[in-house]
Amino acid sequence: MTLLTPTDLQKILDERIPALLDEYQVPGAGIGIRIGGEEIAVGYGVTNLEHPLPVTGDTIFQIGSISKTFVGVIAAQLEKEGLLDIDAPVAPLLADLGQLDGRITMRHLLTHGSGIDAQYMIGRAHELLADHADDSIQASIKHYAEDALMFAPGTDTSYSGPGFMVAGAVIERITGRAWADVLQERVLDPAGMHQTFTTADQAITHRVAAPHDITDGRARLARNEGWQLGWQLPGWDVPGGGVLSTPRQLMRYAEYAKATDPEVGFTRTLASRQVPGLDIGYAWMREPKRGMLSVGHDGLTIGYASRFLMLPEADLSYAILTNSVKGKPFVRAVERVILDALFGPQEPAEVPPFDPEAHAFLEGLYDCGFYGQVRLRIRDDRQAFEMIALPANRGDGSFTIDPMSSPWLLPA
Fold first, then answer.
1. Span of 72-76, 79-83, 122-126, 229-233 with lowest mean pLDDT
2. Cα separation values, 74 from 52, 113, 241, Å
3. CB 327 within 8 A of CB 320
4. Which of 6, 91, 111, 327 has CB 3.0 to 4.6 Å from 271, enough for a Cys bridge?
């Protein structure tokens, strides 16, 4: 690792980020970087294309599924205090909300191994929340408690936002407190995260990045779009994706995690993600990055894409927040700028020759649930696979996000 400081990195970002914003049509981005005891929190671009203000290191973004890590932190705290057994069935705690499968444990919920699908809780939010219906975390469970599971708990992995609704409800029952209050008392206040919120009412008096999408290659404001009824996500989505924060605040979170994880252990491995080298802790995604372990999570909501990672071996943490639902390629590009500056350009991976006959069995149609389907086929030049997105086209009018396409895929 070079001896670059966060201030040195800011100079590099100042040179590179404006062009990347333009290339990827991202209106604005906030970036926080912490190395050892030093940090920066900076912003680029604008909060809103129609009513622009400069993004700063204190601008609020929806951070999406980074929110899930807060659930993991609190679950680990409760376990250490003897209030939660992560391997005990959760159904008895929630018996009045429906007949959840009796095999599901908190370990399964935190590691996406519960088999709960129920992505329609997101896609059909407008329908399910019509006429001012209850959007509380516990109310959500009644919708899917008796649905068939995708697989027996603990036998497979499938990303499950509704699984974190259940986890949030369990924590509410154990503590006797609303999720937002538990989060405030157990993480936000101790970490000094006084500008991290769960509601629009809390955020509205601060500088907030508005959501954007891309149409015909150009960024545009995304107003009244997505699964939520307005800008704020439904209450049942808050544990899994509804936290609102800033680059500087997430650096406070990194500092808090660094200080408390050795004692509480919320980033330690709980399960494999069914891919060699990819594991999951108490909701924290664990994977190699530049030859070191990285621990963190990505986030995606309508209008926002983000990443928060810690590399303990390098004493490095960073958060990259954008106000574009199509911002993930930008996030990856910024991450590459940061890591290249610190560790040097990454050596290209050795790609083994592609044998189309040996891998022909992988061709086919794959279901992506909420996102629709993808078709995997061998390219006409027989040099690799290509993945073709087949977005969901549901007759019930429920909301979906298009799955990803890729013109070039090779087996690992």
1. 122-126
2. 37, 19, 15
3. no
4. 111
Amino acid letter, 372: G
Number of H helices, E strands in the chain: 14, 16
Residues 243-260 pLDDT 10s: 999 999 999 999 999 999
Q: Are 339 and 349 in contact (CB under 8 A)?
A: no
Question: Mean pLDDT of all residues in the chain?
Answer: 93
Q: CA-based diameter of the chain, in Å?
A: 60
- Phi/psi-derived region of residue 290, left when phi > 0, alpha when psi is between -120 and 50, beta in every other case: left
> SS3 sequence, 282-294?
CCCEEEEECCEEE
Better-predicted residue by pLDDT, 102 or 371: 102
- Distance in Å from the first CA to the final CA of the chain: 27
The two three-digit tokens of residue 379, written as one number: 């390219």
Amino acid at 154: G
Contact present, 247 and 30 (Cβ < 8 Å):
yes
Non-local CB neighbours of 404 within 8 Å, separated by 6+ positions:
374, 387, 389
- DSSP code string of 226-276: SSSSSSSPPGGGHHHH--EE-HHHHHHHHHHHHHHHHHH-TTS--EEEEET
Write out the two tokens for 239. 């544990």
Q: ∠167-171-176 over CA atoms, to 5°?
A: 150
pLDDT tens string 103-158 = 999 999 999 999 998 878 877 888 888 899 999 999 999 999 999 999 999 999 99
Residue 13 identity (one-letter amino acid): L
Q: What is the pLDDT of residue 274?
A: 81
Q: What percent of the chain has pLDDT over 90?
A: 82
